[in-house]
Amino acid sequence: MSPNDAGPATRLLNDTFLRACLREPTPYTPLWLMRQAGRYLPEYNATRARAGSFMGLATSPDFATEVTLQPLARWPLDAAILFSDILTVPDAMGLGLSFAAGEGPRFAHPVRDEAAVAKLAVPDLECLRYVFDAVRSIRRALVSKDSEGRAAARVPLIGFSGSPWTLACYMVEGSGSDDYRTVKTMLYARPDLLHRILEINAQAVAAYLNAQVQAGAQAVMIFDSWGGVLSDAAFRRFSLHYTRAVVAALQREAEGRRVPCIVFTKGGGGWLEEIAACGADVVGLDWTTDLGQARQRIDDCVALQGNLDPAVLFAPPEIVAQEARAVVASFGAAQRADGRFGGHVFNLGHGISQHTPPEHVSALVEAVHGA
Amino acid sequence: MSPNDAGPATRLLNDTFLRACLREPTPYTPLWLMRQAGRYLPEYNATRARAGSFMGLATSPDFATEVTLQPLARWPLDAAILFSDILTVPDAMGLGLSFAAGEGPRFAHPVRDEAAVAKLAVPDLECLRYVFDAVRSIRRALVSKDSEGRAAARVPLIGFSGSPWTLACYMVEGSGSDDYRTVKTMLYARPDLLHRILEINAQAVAAYLNAQVQAGAQAVMIFDSWGGVLSDAAFRRFSLHYTRAVVAALQREAEGRRVPCIVFTKGGGGWLEEIAACGADVVGLDWTTDLGQARQRIDDCVALQGNLDPAVLFAPPEIVAQEARAVVASFGAAQRADGRFGGHVFNLGHGISQHTPPEHVSALVEAVHGA
User: How many domains does chain A have?
Assistant: First the structure.
């Protein structure tokens, strides 16, 4: 069924992102940017200052809606992504999330021993109501008018969560880490405890993403930001196994449309074949893997999202345009007999840097849409 | 020619490391550990305290000899590695290296613009004499007696350098970096400047490694610690191209023996085939790549070094032993018709952590030698 069969309330003015996720042809390569509502935008910093803190921003549906729409006001991006944080779920589990200035996230109650693991449970989704309220609010704010004056959404809204493993890293370490010493010690010394955490996380993440879909998210993305720090064998057992469990439990249709699921494992290029077989519609790739080679390896069984190095955006606009076109070309649009694109969602290979000049993003968007 | 044809002054009591590098059979899998002379050893910390600083340690042939031999006094490791730092070369170029406590390396004069690049030159190797003196001193200290009372070296000595790209990262950034913003901006905006730095680095690294070999290093290792942060295309152009140039310029025989060359690219598993074709005898792998699959991909055209996750060493000794045996098994010794090992040098996939309990290393060494 075409996305636009979904009735007036959820008709989309621009469904290129959803089509590309489902490997349907699109007139151009759609793009959005990880962390597109972020500190590189002066208007974001202004809103954040009003909100008082990062969590003040994330927990207010009004502020979250405001910043979610900011990059869309600047550029014709092809999707919106919920403004939130991957650590909302462990926070709702009672771990006590805070963001110290300049230090990144920190949990007051990390999960490091048998007693802490025994107390851990899938959180009451009511504690995450602010997220679902934000989804509903953003969906309303995205409604515009089509050329005949009928209500329609400008672009689809993506919901997201951290993967069970990535959440476990933060939950056990209690903060970011250089070497993942605490969580890896648990992995090797007490795998039973880690498996228990991951089982709970998988259930929580699935419930969380499904509630986002029920609130109006039209695609979902699972960020396995730290899958790439694991050994080959450990990645399969402790990361991919639980990501697969989440994907299997997801609601895949809403409002009469397929809800695509994107799985992104930073540093996961070596496991592309296995990740592509996890049940997701789209696999996100960082910039270390060539998109054309990736397509060959997986025989186009899923769509691909990525994968410009966000550092390219520090170069002058003409170089940004050239490198963006190279990424589009590397996917190999010409391989389609009808000469139209299909199966590629352009993105960065990681979140956009706070040091990015916004005018360079203009060059990027123009280059990708014009490639 | 067998390593032990090399005459009494350079006869080796244990040549398993050199044999494995050249894919010759060995009675067991030889091992050494990246950063084996390091802060996890109380005796290292005591020597460092006497030296006053890290550079005080590295620039003194006596201290460098002392710490190089410390891990060999504890365990029957199969190679010694020169105690030094990858940043000695840019320091000799006049960039002004210092190590602020708890902050890592810092250069007083980073190379960021046309004028700084124009001034850059291959350093006078005389400025690095302390390194070659350390090599000579360590070689003397490694001499022992064989069962018939004749002089012979206990194990071979490995020399090393950073790769041209990895050195350039530090030279341009001026320190470590999370996002390599400065050097990547140069890469995309002024590739001509970066290529010039890399050409000079390649010449300097080749001359530096050859001088180590002339001083007595019996194998050399090139650390491309930051190759894995580059995009697929940029890795080939800015990292591998210059590593290949270094390898091509290396002296490959000394004292009547082949001098094996090891190339290690952290995060380079995706480029294994290309790295294996760079001219090195051995490719180092981090723990994200399975050794057996790696062998298949490169059809055993080079030996492999690696690849236990150093975090495994935080687990109890019996788990350390189990995981070490799994790495040996993953290489697949049984594939040799004669049932003996060949082509695998066991190592960690990264330097050993300062938080490693030394007694866990005992379990590791025993497990690898007994596997």
Answer: 1
Are A19 and A155 spatial neighbours (Cβ–Cβ below 8 Å)?
no
Place of tokens 């851990």: A120
What's the longest Cα–Cα distance across chain A?
A: 64
Q: Is the pLDDT of residue B82 over 50?
A: yes
For the cut 90, the answer to whether the pLDDT of residue A117 exceeds it is yes
With beta carbons under 8 A apart, name residues in chain A contacting B188: 311-312, 314-315, 319, 323
Q: ipTM of the assembly? A: 0.93
pLDDT tens for each residue of B42-64: 999 999 999 998 889 999 999 99
> Which chain A residues are within 8 Å of B187, Cβ to Cβ?
311
On the CB side of A260, CA atoms within 13 Å amount to 27
This prediction has a pTM of: 0.95
The CATH number linked to A55 is 3.20.20.210
Per-residue pLDDT band for A156 (boundaries 50, 70, 90) equals very high
User: pLDDT tens digits, residue range A190-227?
Assistant: 999 999 999 999 999 999 999 999 999 999 999 999 99
In 3D space, the residue among A173, A198, A199 whose CA is nearest the CA of residue A184 turns out to be A173
Q: Give the mean model confidence (pLDDT) for residues A86-101.
A: 93
Return all residues near B308 (Cβ < 8 A) that are at least 6 apart. Answer: B287, B323, B324, B327, B346, B347, B348, B349, B364
User: Within chain A, how many helices (H) and strands (E) appear?
Assistant: 16, 15
Contact residues, A window 153-212, toward B, CB-based 8 Å cutoff: 179-181, 184-185, 187-189
Cα–Cα distances (Å) from B172 to B116, B167, B181, in that order, read 10, 9, 10
B300 in the Ramachandran plot: left (φ > 0), alpha (ψ -120 to 50) or beta?
left
Q: Who contacts A154 (Cβ-Cβ below 8 Å, separation ≥6)? A: A12, A13, A14, A72, A80, A142, A143, A144
What does the alpha-carbon distance between residue A335 and residue A29 come to, in Å, rounded to a whole number? 14
Range of the domain at A199: 3-370
